Amino acid sequence: METKEKEEKRLEAAEFETMDLDGRKAWTNKAIKNHALGAMVIGLIPLPAVDFVALTSLQLRLLYKFSKFYNVKFIKGKGKNIIASMLGGYIPVSMAGPIASLVKAIPIVGQTSGVLAMSSLAGATTYALGKVFVQHFESGGTLLDFDPATLRDYFVEQFKEGGKVTEELKKGAPLKSTS
Question: Is the pLDDT of residue 112 over 60?
């Protein structure tokens, strides 16, 4: 007799194997949107550094979900390195996160501007990371052959798109289908 967890994994694997490209896109886009929303909420945490740690955990969770979805072996340390490398390679993003987090330490004005900046930044970076991982896994890639340098331009493009998406999410507007 299968345990409930084993049965769920078996059903998920069967569902993925029979899922066409449009089905996979719908599933991954929903996961990206949900994690971008979560990241935006994390960005509202008024405590410096706490938000940054929580955001990294959320982004790592997204990578874990995509690894499971695409049946790619998940390696936590490798995932952390990939996320840091993607964000670190894009200097404005890598600097803005910690700065927006630290600005929150300034009473009233710093907290308000830091929270707003970090919320948008968190949503956009999570969106871009999600899109990068989907593209990589869809092309048959794994965490072991992930090369941040080759995906940097795509990350920048998706970060800009993520900025638009976070604005739509802030307004509560329904998201348009994204590629």
Answer: no
